[in-house]
Amino acid sequence: MRLLHTSDWHLGRSFHRVNMLGAQEEFIDHLVEVVRAREVDAVLVAGDVYDRAVPPLAAVELFDQALHRLAALDVPTLMISGNHDSARRLGVAAGLIGRAGIHLRTDPASCEVPVVLSDAHGEVACYGLPYLEPALVKAEFGAEGTSHEAVLGKAMDRVRADLAGRPPGTRSVVLAHAFVTGGQASESERDITVGGVASVPAAVFDGVDYVALGHLHGSQVLGERVRYSGSPLAYSFSEARHRKGMWLVDLGADGALTAEQLDTPVPRPLARISGTLAELLADPALTGYEDHWIEATLTDAARPAEPMARLLARFPHTLTLVFAPERTEGAPEISYARRLRDRSDQQIAEDFVAHVRGSAADAAEAAVLRQAIDEVRAADAAREVVR
User: Fold this and answer.
1) Bridge-partner residues for 272, per DSSP?
2) Which alpha helices (H) appear in the chain, and where do they start and end?
3) CA dihedral defined by 83, 47, 55, 41, rounded to 10 degrees?
4) What is the pLDDT along the chain (387 residues), one digit of tens a residue?
5) Of 160, 227, 282, 360, which sits 20 to 30 A from 82 (CA to CA)?
6) What 3-state class would DSSP assign to 24?
7) Measured distance CA(151)–CA(133) in Å, rounded
8) Please, what is the Cα angle at 39 between 36 and 43, to 5 degrees?
9) Rounded to whole angstroms, what are the CA distances from 174 to 30, 78, 143, 207, 381?
């Protein structure tokens, strides 16, 4: 069976001040053509269809067009909701849409109910695990604690129990939207940390023939059977070196798997350049970047006059300008930035307590801080669901 794995469309999102709807339309055109030309048997969309809970009308219209075009090809499509989506909105009329072969999985309570596909070699059970916000679904799964590993582990227990009751030789596919240990994040994914533990081990998905992941925007292979497709378009300059695409996965009769990465259209390449303004305007090595979207970092000791206007004269697609003057090693700005780098919300909060009081937070105080952070995140997630 031939599967096309994609995710993180983020319909309605812009790239800095650039409207990306045209590029997203081009991607949908490409997706439909790949499904037709490569004789795809099923399309897997692993969450973050939209960029926000209440997407703009143009994004909804593009999504509607995509569904109609996929249904017209008579190719089953399985979609799950991601942490950017409103599960309730995305799942509206899922039962009716399912009759057209578009299967929306947005309800955590039905994660063990697969879409069963068939080919000449038998059945393939496809399970859609929507994004599971631990604080909101803990009771549903009877999970201990509010970590992503706890709730995903319980969801996968349900999947394996259902799979065990199916005919021998049934192949299996799971879609999930999560941060799996070993994955490399970029700057454009929304933080899903809860209790300081955002990631889940890949072993949570043991026993499944293929795991189609969404959430991280870089295409990644965490194991032969566990992959991120990544987003089809870049949504931050941290993705400048990403190869954007989809996975074309062939699942054999015995569960053997081969995968081919298919590139998606690039509306305009990205580049990060750094140096003094004079260097950036004169360096011949940067000529190849003149048609790129640019993030420029200026290292001038003093801010030069009209830097953006002068950069635009050479790099007309410059979108962001960062000032990072070269300073001495002991400068307070540098030491403070380094103290914060790669530290979690929990660690920053505990550092603040230690700085203000002069002594570190004890275990009980750390637990209070963790609970407060988790409650804020859960409240934010609940607001997204209700909106």
Assistant:
1) 295
2) 21-37, 57-72, 87-90, 94-98, 134-141, 148-164, 277-282, 307-314, 332-340, 345-357, 363-386
3) -170
4) 999 999 999 999 999 989 999 999 999 999 999 999 999 999 999 999 999 999 999 999 999 999 999 999 999 999 999 999 999 999 999 999 999 999 999 999 999 999 999 999 999 999 999 999 998 999 999 998 888 999 999 999 999 999 999 999 999 999 999 999 888 888 777 766 534 357 899 999 999 999 999 999 999 999 999 999 999 999 999 999 999 999 999 999 999 999 999 999 999 999 999 999 999 999 999 999 999 999 999 999 989 999 999 999 999 999 999 999 976 555 555 555 666 666 788 888 888 888 767 678 898 888 899 889 888 877 776 665 555
5) 160
6) helix
7) 8
8) 80
9) 24, 10, 20, 10, 24
pTM: 0.83
User: Max Cα separation, the chain?
Assistant: 72
Which long-range CB contacts under 8 A does 61-70 form with residues at least 24 apart? Answer: 62/11, 62/21, 62/24, 62/25, 62/28, 63/11, 65/28, 66/28, 66/31, 66/32, 67/97, 67/100, 67/102, 69/28, 69/32, 70/32, 70/35, 70/43, 70/101, 70/102
Here the tokens at position 170 are: 């049934």
Q: Are 44 and 76 within 8 A, CB to CB?
A: no
